[in-house]
Specification:
The structure is a homotrimer. By secondary structure, chain A is of the alpha/beta class. In chain A, about 50% of the residues lie in helices and about 10% in strands. In chain A, the strands form two sheets. A five-stranded parallel sheet of chain A has the order 7-6-5-8-9. In chain A, strand 3, helix 5 and strand 4 form a beta-alpha-beta unit. In chain A, helix 1 packs antiparallel against helix 2 and helix 11 runs antiparallel to helix 12. The N and C termini of chain A lie close together (about 10 Å). Chains in contact: A-B, A-C, B-C.
């Protein structure tokens, strides 16, 4: 357990302030908070590999609210809360009375009498997801303060319109493992690049999350996308600031090749232009089906103009030693497998496939670590106790 | 733990006969049974507030069968069985083969080989819900008697066409806490009043449950509704008898103001007239969509004639010291929030909102207490053991 | 615990090789494997009857994938994994992103980071179900070998196109109990007979499973069906071989009466002709709704020609002493109850109803035993430890 103890010691040297809090956005959190979550995630994974239980609850519920389809995040959350000792209850908004006009405030309390954690995925509408999470957070705070709830449930962002912290931290943990520690990440070039996909409407939270996390670890982050596929402007500003603080860099280009040039890591992924997502939200709210259909057609046509934004073998050749690590949040749109033309060539994906599985494999432990750090007052002591 | 021990002593003084039984209707149960369930509910809530585990099962399933949408009851049941140590399995009648002609008798046994509890909500059709619960109860009794089931699952009524015992006992526990004990409830006037709502088809079980529970605790219960919004006649008869036995009273009026006059508690809530619910059941069975549409239109129009049945600030002023406690099973139809005109004025609801949350907060523990009393032969001994 | 210890001793005398493996088809397994699973199932059921916990996991997920509706198998799986200490997560393919083009290989890994067991029911399409299970098995093997998964989930076949091992072993355990041991089964005649049903499209796995399991225990197995209602030819070949090996027999006839003559056990059950199932699979894949409708009409008409294939009182009279044991996987199509004319007469079914419930009651424990034998290196030691 040398590796475990090394992390325990590093955790002891940090000053996180996660106890009793929610985890909504990485950029609201100190570097110590981020490191603490990731170190705990690694330690919980180590315990799991040795089948040493890491339960911290005697009983209680964990509630997931998914406003978008999901396999991997659903099962990651299910796994995380199971390991910690909670039972999962999914709030299905069709089954429940939420559809019947209940306010968020009321529902949040009604489901939380024995609830320790609420995980929310709400990534479809710019300006909505994070706001919704804050409303739920405020509601359970009020309930707890007024004796309605015996405990305040911890909120975990399982993907919102702004950030996807459990994903970006899993991405980073893979890099940490691959390159050999936090320090090894400094000066590494990562290309967070838009890539072509025949689908449309993919959220912005992954690229926004990646540029705002990797810049905090001294990496040289390059964001690349075709003209018009902008992210939310605020998220670019924070990424710049983080890069300055960490001694890394943040560059914004409109060429995949430029981003891939000498990159140590590439992250080619499709997303919808912010303006399209905003328009789509409006149309959805208005129930304008024809408008939505027209928008989709327009977007797919626009996307098609950028079919050359594909992570091909040729594109990989221009990366550092032709050998950059390929990352993806999965599922990837693989040319010749899931679609005719997509984000990545079949041979490239296949070469890195198991790496992407390992990348995804951190997510249950990142989620568990967020909950652990919010619920355990003495994390070092608690973690030590597991191995005794 | 003085408060805990006080309840333990009171429990010891009672002679409940709940062991091995189901909990379907409050009016089938002795006063000692009702008090025992409520005392245990309070004690389990106290343990929960101190995070002292109150598990009684090593393993086993709890099954919920919901024939109507529900958020709060679903999560209350999920919470209760989790605290007791069971895993929840929801019997979704769309997913299952019940739709394919299985008999209730067979299904009840097929799902119960490791099942300790079955919670059922079936409140839509007068004459159906309670009957269905009895069929399930008979089926698992037969299975248990014949060696099919190693244990007989306990049935818990999570709302039927007749009664909503987990709700009414939560309502009563809130009153007990608010006024300070069983004795303080004697002579308190509670107005169980119909109120206007733009929706239709709400079940009768809440008012029927309330008038049949509160009358047993010496309260002065006034039932109020417009002409034609009758409850099932039997439930009025039992309420009268209970009032006579307990030294309380039961009055039936057709004016909200008369009911609210000097009331200590008001419970303004919409329901559909019994005759409408019966008609609706027929039409549903016949699959008469046009008939259902017509009935709905007719009812909504009829409801509109009674829009003055709203719990307004003016109406509250005529209650005892203008200060009656407002109760509701939630979600309430709040004027200006969930609808233009509804059951209660926005300012009235907001003033009592946290009280209604606390009221709801008893429900998981009432459910747990019903199960506890059915499964634990020596409840006092068991409860004492938790705090050691 | 004499009965328990007797089984423990028998288990000790066997040489099963189930550790670390999947359970997909009975005919891939040695007789010792089959006996071991069934003995463990009996022992777990005994523990359950005495409410002695038989948990083997501290935490972890069990995932079920159901591609067909199911009540009893769903709850059997839920029960089995609960008793063993796992939390159930159902992979609902509508909710998940599988519908969005993910490969089986990827999904299998993405859901398995903390997963100990995957139970699959995929019985609709000949040539598909078993193949799908093998793909999932290969995927998690690859993931485990490459450090993606800390443990390799055990696959359990909850019904495929070829076999329904948890059903057939439950059927056999009922026979073992009814007749009094493995040896008592030798030479017993079982009629696995097609029976008329007004439905269509029922899978072949039950009859295929039964003829391939009962022949291994020295029974005289007679398969009966009208001309054209063939099973997969391979499954008949293996049944013949097994009968030769065990000293039993396998006969194939086209008369229910011939099969029932002097039978000790009858298993009258509807299934669709193999050729129809294959045709149906094609049409489903092509989305040919009219073709499917036509096929259904054709089949129902064809079925009607064989309405005399019913397990009537008269038919029962020709069985051994008019007193054969009736078996069924449930739900049965009961004449006069679930349909006008069906597989079995009402009075016959009612006489054996509780027997069929007991038959079904083995299933949770058969599933649990499959998992137990795959996960526990020293099953005898572990089982002994439960009773201490």
């Amino acid at each position: 357990m040398t590796e475990f103890n090394k992390r325990l010691q590093e955790l002891e040297s940090l000053a996180p302030d996660l106890f009793g809090g929610d985890f909504l956005l990485t950029w609201e959190n100190s570097l110590d908070n981020l490191k603490a979550v990731m170190l705990v995630a690694e330690m919980l994974q180590m315990l799991h590999k040795k089948k040493i239980p890491w339960r911290i609850f005697d009983y209680g519920l964990a509630i997931s609210i998914f406003r978008d389809n999901s396999t991997r995040t659903r099962f990651s959350f299910a796994s995380a809360v199971n390991g910690l000792g909670l039972a999962l209850s999914e709030l299905d908004e069709v089954k429940s009375q939420i559809a019947h006009g209940e306010t968020v405030r009321e529902t949040a309390n009604m489901i939380s009498f024995l609830t320790e954690v609420i995980g929310i995925r709400d990534d479809m509408y710019p300006g909505e997801g994070h706001t919704y999470m804050q409303e739920v957070a405020d509601a359970v705070s009020e309930g707890h303060a007024n004796g309605v709830l015996a405990q305040r449930p911890t909120l975990v962002n399982l993907q919102c319109d702004l950030d996807h912290p459990t994903q970006s931290m899993s991405d980073l943990l893979k890099l940490k493992d691959y390159f050999g520690g936090w320090d090894a990440l400094k000066g590494k070039k990562i290309a967070m690049s838009w890539a072509y996909s025949p689908s449309y409407g993919k959220p912005l939270s992954v690229p926004q999350g990646v540029i705002n996390l990797m810049t905090r670890f001294g990496m040289d982050v390059v964001l690349a996308h075709p003209e018009g596929y902008d992210l939310l402007p605020d998220t670019l500003d924070t990424a710049k600031t983080f890069a300055n603080q960490s001694g890394g860099s943040f560059t914004h280009v409109h060429s995949m090749a430029e981003a891939f040039k000498d990159a140590d890591i590439v992250y080619p992924k499709s997303w919808a232009p912010m303006a399209v997502m905003q328009k789509r939200t409006e149309l959805l709210k208005q129930g304008d089906k024809q408008g939505l259909k027209d928008l989709e057609q327009h977007c797919l046509a626009e996307n098609k103009r950028h079919m050359d934004w594909e992570c091909t073998e040729d594109m990989m050749k221009i990366t550092k030693a032709g050998n950059a690590l390929y990352e993806h949040c999965l599922p990837a749109d693989i040319s010749g497998i899931s679609c005719e033309h997509g984000e990545v060539a079949k041979t490239v994906f296949e070469r890195y496939r198991l790496h992407t599985y390992q990348e995804a494999g951190y997510k249950p432990f990142v989620i568990a670590a967020m909950i652990f750090m919010s619920k355990v007052r003495q994390p070092v002591t608690k973690l030590s106790s597991f191995t005794r």
